[in-house]
């Protein structure tokens, strides 16, 4: 039996359940029990976390990390940890898992998850991990699937509405815009000594450093976007929603109960019960919503986003037509145009670029360029312009992006000055150049530029962590509040120069017979 045939006949198991039921951990353990495997994860942050966990068990030489912006591939890896988008299509493995399969219903990324659910298999075992809302549609799409339910081991309870300043320690406060995250974190700093900050736009390095502040107990609060709902495991006792409205890429809307449950479920760990509630601008939940959240009872997913995978590269117009094909299977709907299709449409309107694209190979390469993610998020026109520049480079001269041009783009990101938003913007730009550098045939020296982009991102990440910490954590107040809460004695000292320190933090000085507090 061929490898592909074996994949089609291999057993598929769907492991479904609420947040915090150990589904991803279970998949990692199953993968390590095989001679090789691959796991597709929804976030770059989570992929890095799982990669670090697997290489501690299997060794650096045995594990590859593949995301759009980072590729660490040893000579002969046995295990592949990837984002779902970056799962290599031409590698057969005994075990394959796809995490958070309910994202197949997402308007922007859903068609990618649907494609992996329908077509990717391990030749010995395949696991689909996600919410119980996927059971009905998976039964229809994959009728021979075995289902395993993962019940939550701890209780999740509604704690009502509380002021931000009255939230209990070990709370995660969830907001949906950077502005609101900053506002909440600033308030927590003034009242409670500080908070760690986690947003999806942060690099893994910055995010890990911020989470470490919370996990170590240096701060008792973390303010986050809904990125916290996707597998970022922390010791959270209470989740407070500062808002229940978000922008989903198309419009501002209220969260669905299932989306609220994905985030609220981060409260409580293993056998420890957790609570959730609202704070800030959020209105209290209706009793029906509370009941559904506490009992993990949500509406089933009825339709999956889909895009034709059998693309025809004979010409740009034929490619556009193949992208517009409608699904023939019930339960699937053609996905709305994403940034890659928008970039292709812009390309088709540019005669100077169209004239460069002659062969099927040219069309395929141009389509690959259209799939550069819009991390910069300036405007669709600006993103299409960038894609057009890359296509022009790839189809003229030596067929590579000129290194002097690429170096100049990176140099714009090297400035370490500026505030949190400025540094975050530079990191988003670096992510774009990192993605481009990770294409093996777009630059003449890709490994050099990958390392160069990584170096710049790491430096920006360290400075951003420092800025976040300085702005949102008052170490003196944090230490005092933490000690007082534990009813512990405070160690104080007076230095020879008159500086008074409590628990090692300077709080002021003696000048003459007066105490002058630090500002």
Number of helices: 18
Shape: globular
Number of domains: 4
Query: Regions with pLDDT < 50 over 5+ consecutive residues?
Result: none
* CATH architecture designation of the largest domain: 3-Layer(aba) Sandwich
Helix content: 25-40%
Q: Please give the CATH class of the largest domain.
A: Alpha Beta
Output the radius of gyration. Answer: 25 Å
Spell out the CATH superfamily of the largest domain: P-loop containing nucleotide triphosphate hydrolases
Q: Give a quick account of the main beta sheet: strands, pairing sense, barrel closure.
A: 8 strands, mixed
CATH level-3 fold name of the largest domain:
Rossmann fold
> How are strands sequenced across the largest beta sheet?
4-3-5-2-6-7-1-8
- Total DSSP E strands: 22
Distance between the termini: 75 Å
Structural class: alpha/beta
Average predicted confidence as pLDDT = 90
């Amino acid at each position: 039996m061929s490898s592909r045939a074996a994949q089609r006949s291999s057993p598929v198991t769907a492991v479904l359940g609420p947040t915090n039921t150990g589904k991803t951990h279970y998949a990692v353990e199953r993968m390590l029990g095989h001679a090789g495997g691959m796991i597709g994860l929804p976030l770059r942050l989570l992929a890095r976390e799982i990669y670090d966990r697997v290489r501690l068990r299997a060794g650096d030489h045995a594990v590859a990390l593949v995301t759009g912006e980072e590729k660490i591939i040893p000579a002969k890896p046995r295990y592949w940890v990837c984002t779902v988008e970056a799962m290599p299509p031409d590698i057969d493995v005994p075990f394959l898992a796809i995490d958070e399969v309910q994202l197949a219903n997402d308007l922007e990324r859903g068609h990618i998850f649907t494609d992996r659910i329908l077509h990717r298999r391990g030749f010995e075992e395949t696991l689909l991990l996600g919410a119980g809302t996927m059971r009905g549609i998976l039964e229809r799409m994959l009728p021979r699937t075995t289902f395993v339910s993962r019940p939550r081991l701890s209780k999740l309870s509604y704690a009502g509405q509380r002021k931000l300043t009255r939230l209990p320690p070990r709370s995660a406060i969830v907001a949906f815009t950077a502005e609101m995250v900053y506002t909440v974190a600033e308030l927590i700093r003034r009242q409670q000594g500080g908070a760690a900050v986690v947003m999806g736009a942060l690099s893994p390095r910055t995010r890990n450093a911020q989470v470490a502040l919370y996990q170590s107990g240096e701060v008792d609060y973390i303010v986050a976007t809904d990125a916290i709902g996707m597998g970022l495991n922390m010791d959270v006792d209470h989740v407070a929603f500062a808002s229940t409205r978000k922008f989903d890429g198309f419009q501002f809307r209220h969260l669905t109960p299932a989306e609220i449950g994905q985030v609220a479920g981060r409260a409580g760990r293993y056998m420890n019960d957790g609570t959730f509630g609202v704070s800030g601008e959020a209105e209290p939940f209706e009793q029906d919503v509370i009941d559904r959240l506490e009992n993990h009872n949500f509406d089933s997913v009825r339709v999956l986003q889909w895009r034709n995978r059998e693309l025809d590269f004979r010409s740009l117009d034929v490619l556009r037509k193949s992208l517009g094909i409608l699904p023939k299977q019930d339960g699937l709907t053609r996905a709305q145009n994403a940034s890659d299709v928008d970039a292709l449409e812009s390309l088709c309107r540019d005669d100077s670029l169209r004239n460069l694209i002659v062969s099927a190979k040219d069309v395929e390469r141009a389509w690959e360029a259209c799939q550069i993610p819009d991390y910069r998020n300036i405007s669709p026109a600006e993103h299409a312009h960038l894609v057009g520049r890359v296509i022009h480079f790839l189809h003229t001269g030596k067929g590579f992006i000129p290194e002097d041009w690429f170096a100049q783009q990176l140099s714009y990101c090297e400035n370490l000055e500026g505030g949190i938003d400025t540094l975050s913007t530079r990191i988003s730009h670096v992510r774009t150049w990192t993605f481009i550098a990770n294409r093996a045939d777009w630059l003449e020296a890709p490994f050099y530029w990958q390392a160069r982009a990584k170096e710049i991102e790491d430096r920006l990440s360290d400075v951003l962590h420092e800025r976040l910490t300085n702005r949102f954590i008052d170490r003196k107040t944090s230490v005092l509040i933490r000690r007082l809460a534990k009813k512990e004695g405070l160690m104080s000292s007076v230095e020879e120069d008159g500086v008074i320190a409590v628990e090692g933090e300077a709080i002021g000085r003696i000048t003459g017979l007066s105490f002058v507090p630090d500002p």
